[in-house]
Design brief:
Blueprint: H1 7-26, H2 33-60, H3 68-77, H4 83-99, H5 105-141
Keywords: Transferase
Protein name: Nucleotidyltransferase
GO molecular function: transferase activity
């Protein structure tokens, strides 16, 4: 269990910055080879920060979770994610292996489509939800 109750809020600040960077990367009209690799890498660290922030929140709330898969399933049970968001994040977890093969043009084009159409929007939704949850907690503390 997490000994620092503010750990999830601290990690959230990093997630917010990563998600903003991902949003900027997704807003391009077209990508050259290096930009596509950067898009994939930006997605990867945004995704990692998303599940780790959710893990810290769940631990703060008393849940015992370890793997990304258990984090997403538990966030659904705890009503932090909708079933659609949970499914997309689990798909992103599975597809991460595909994303490591950015040297293969077919893989990188599939990765680009998934990131732009599914994964980035859900990371944005989760980030905004966590920001609101953090703000609500701070209002209650005042």
């Amino acid at each position: 269990m997490n000994s620092n109750p503010d750990r999830w809020k601290q990690r959230l600040q990093h997630l917010i910055k990563a998600q903003q960077r991902l949003e900027r990367a997704c807003s391009q009209e077209s990508y050259n080879e290096l930009e596509l690799a950067g898009l994939v890498q930006t997605f990867e660290f945004s995704f990692d920060l998303t599940w780790k922030t959710l893990k810290d929140l769940l631990e703060f709330e008393g849940f015992d979770v370890a793997s990304p898969r258990s984090v997403f399933r538990t966030t659904l049970e705890a009503k932090h994610l909708s079933s659609e968001q949970c499914e997309i994040m689990l798909e992103a977890l599975i597809k991460r292996n595909l994303l490591f093969h950015t040297y293969d043009e077919a893989n990188v084009l599939e990765a680009q489509a998934l990131i732009l159409e599914s994964f980035s929007p859900v990371i944005g939704q989760v980030t905004r939800y966590l920001e609101e949850k953090c703000a609500q907690g701070e209002r209650r503390e005042q």
